[in-house]
Amino acid sequence: MAASISGLLKPWTPRVFLVRWSRYNPYYLEPEVRKEAYIKPEAELSAEEKEQRELKSLRPIKAATNDVTSSVFNDPVISKFVGMMMLDGNKILANEIIAKTLENIKRKQVDKYHKAPEGTKEEIECNPYAIFHQALENCKPVVGLASIQKGGKFYQVPIPLSDDRRRHLAMKWIITECRESKHRRTLMYEKLSQELLAAFVREGNVIKKKLAMHKMAEANRAYAHYRWA
Amino acid sequence: MSSFLFQIMALQRLSFRLRQTATHVRSLHTSGCGQQQAAEAVESEPEPLSVFRTRENDPACHSEQHMGQYYTLPSTDIRTLFPHGLPGRYQQQLKTFNEACMMVRKPSLEVISYLKKTDFSKPSLRYLFYGLNGTGKTMSLCHSVHYCYTQGWLVLHVPDAHIWMKNCKELMPSSYNDTRFDQPLQASDWLRNFRITNEPFLSKIKTKQRYVWTKRESTEEGSLLGQLVDQGISRVKSSSDVVGAVLKELRLQSGQPESDFRMAVAVDGVNGLWGRSTIKKKDKSPVESDELTLVYNLKKLLTKDWTGGAIITTLSQTGSLYTSRFDYLPQELLGERGFDSMDPFLPVSVPNYSEKEFESCYLYWMDRQWLQHPQSRTEEGKKEIIFLCNRNPSMMDRICASL
Question: pTM above the 0.80 mark?
């Protein structure tokens, strides 16, 4: 629908499409922050990319938010995780915690690497970013449960989840787990690094929660058709 | 450059056997570096250990050609010499990498060359490392102290003078002098670490004076220094006075012809001794630095009254109290009184990493698997790291820690 209407929209049109908290007119385009996109010379562009560039020179572009950077170390998944961990708008603190977590994971793994015998060194994964991404993948549930009302009762019905929803659920579980079930004196980054390393090898409480969700979905298979009630 | 290569080739042709004996000599660490020259010529052949490492582990033999390279400190040395001297992040790094490697840099090489030429009959010289925050002053101090240790000097290392000026949990009025205050916990900690570092000297040096601690306890004249130190560690109440006695003994005996030891006094954060303190007396008035026994006795040691050793110090803004974050020069941090007491001294500036040193550090971390982000290993990533940290060693450490 937006595609058909966008032909009629102009930047000054006071139409406000409230999607989440974005108050931008859909006429505005997303900013491109990566350096590689601008390095390519004219000759190498395909027809669509040439069109894109044409469009960008005509249409207005949204302002880039403060968390995206054109740094080579920018990672959108980590930025999303930082945003989810943030409390009261204190992004500096959230960023510091994540930086300490990554350092902690790297330290433990490099420690293991240097003390391991020669043959086993290749199997030890030292990259904290790879561990984080893999741990997140391992925590993502495949199916989710929705509460659907039929005949006065609410049933937990298994439904497929979109990618964004799965990622959101995984991150939320990790953060809640680390906030609630840790010893009073353990710091957040210490607990986070323990959980992520456990999730990397498919152990730990977050994986248990994901498997519990899968089991419930399997148990309620009979109500799957309630989705189309 | 070409004449140097010609010399190498000549040496190669001359003696193949010399090369084999040279490796033996290198591993034995025998006298002086004359024999090392053949070994060094062999080293600069096209099979060095690597660009950033050097096999030369003896600080006495470090020279300009080792600048920017990492040398390994043996773990026994670390345990005896540095129970309390190394920066916190460096100690974590030691544990992680399973080895202790330090970079050979110009400021410490300068001080070591002066130490080699000291005239022990003249009053001891004072060296002061100064520079911006995080440029490696403490590490340069540790390098010089390692040199003194390998030469057999007695090392009196105060890891941070600021900890004697703040966060005092127990402040007792001194038993010796009513106007002064004791800090038993800090004093006993320091004595313990002093004992670990200087075990061999404790059974050789004898006291020249009788010390009375209580009605029943006293240390007689001519007893060993070890007994004095043990007295301080076991009786925590009198430990600050014991520290004062130890410093006095060492100062008096150091230059004498009959004592055969040299003393190196290493104080980190020396500007704290003349700064303000956050310790408060019972009536909430702040304590002056001269009213603390530990600080008072240490200041007596920093004068130029004694001979037979050297005083190596560092300024430090990070732990200091009531100083601006941007102060780093000796005049600003020491203040008037401090500068007048320390004057004349030899200031040694510690700058950020040069390009060669940065390269060396970067390659060392790549070798030790510390830089794990795939982009940090590319040229773009390296340029970005340089931009973010401006080649400041501590900033670089903090940035690359999470990469």
Answer: yes
